[in-house]
Amino acid sequence: MLSPASISDYRELARRRLPRLMFDYVDGGAFEETTLRANRADLQRMTLKQKVLRDVSALDTSITLFGRNLSLPVILAPIGFAGMMGRRAEVQAVRAAEKAGVPFTLSTVGICSIEEVRRTASEPFWFQLYMMKDRGVVGEILARAAAANCGALVFTVDLPVLGTRYRDIRNGMGVRLSALSKLKLAWDFAAHPMWAYDVGVRGRPHMLGTLGDVLKDANSLGALLAWTTTALDPSVTWKDLEWIRGQWKGPLILKGVLDADDAREAVKTGADAIVVSNHGGRQLDAATSTISLLPKIAEAVASETIILMDGGIRSGQDLTRALALGARACMIGRAWVYGVAAQGEAGIAAVIETIRRELRTTMALIGKTRVGDIDASVLQG
């Protein structure tokens, strides 16, 4: 039995526990997954300066974000259909996040609804929004998020259409299956009885979530994906951001910014923060890694807005690298889903604590006692 020590270990446990279709949905990227790999490779190429004979007996990993004190510069990112990876995963995630002193972000297409997560949460959680063609539905969702006292709205701007994800297509997700393919899929699910019982029996009802009133007839992941494909609005422009700003009075964060000019426009239009993100390599497979683009975007707007980053963060050392190049904090997505798939709420908590431990170790070895003191001076060369 694998005794997990790193995020990679939790990934392996998740791979063993989940049916292939589910694991590939979380783990995969667009097309040939070049950008997905670049997110990790470009982070790992960055080296840090080790410093010696510094007093590092007291380390402070906390930050303040939108008036809330966080114990760690980490936010649990929104993950669509996370509740298919672990029983009511979004509820487990908000509990683990609160105990760890970091925010959790609920996806528009989460399995658990805004109201279900709110009943569990004692701190304001964040809500992520996709723009849909039906503005009435969007307005209703925003009102529900406000009623639930969500602490921030994360508006995903890099999904005018769904990216082409070959792993999902090969696994039959969102496509009409032949009788043989259905049999293979059923066999794969049956071969993972712990997952099937935890998610399929103990975790019901499924496919409802925040969109339950809209998706009364969506009773499968494929049906929900098919609906999402037709519901997303590819005509969204900066004018729609102005409309959202008029609907939402709390902090507004734009997720999916990869260009300095777009970052400037985001600030101009009223965004309180941006997330430098390529959707984890799940959209444009010719996109540059987020860590490579972070310095230019930070140079353009860091003095005017809060910069967050996601994409490839798997350790406290990765987190340090992103902080050094201008991120205030990082979102982690796949990492916490690996945790919930592997060990439920305890797995999410362990993932967060792993990153915390690694960050503290890294800070001590580079001679920095406060997260706020981490800057480009810690990078080698």
Notes on the protein architecture:
- The protein has helices at residues 7-17, 20-27, 34-45, 89-100, 114-120, 135-147, 166-170, 179-190, 193-201, 221-231, 238-247, 260-269, 290-301, 316-324, 334-366; strands at residues 63-65, 68-70, 74-76, 105-106, 126-129, 152-156, 252-257, 273-276, 306-309, 329-332.
- It is α/β, with parallel strands linked by helices and 381 residues long.
- The chain has one domain: TIM Barrel (Alpha-Beta Barrel).
- Helix 6 (135-147) links the parallel strand 5 (126-129) and strand 6 (152-156).
- The mean pLDDT is 93.
The count of domains is 1
CATH topology: TIM Barrel
Proper CATH architecture = Alpha-Beta Barrel
How would the global form be characterised?
globular
Radius of gyration: 20 Å
**Helical fraction:** 40-55%
Structural class: alpha/beta
- The named CATH superfamily: Aldolase class I
Low-confidence runs of at least 5 consecutive residues: none
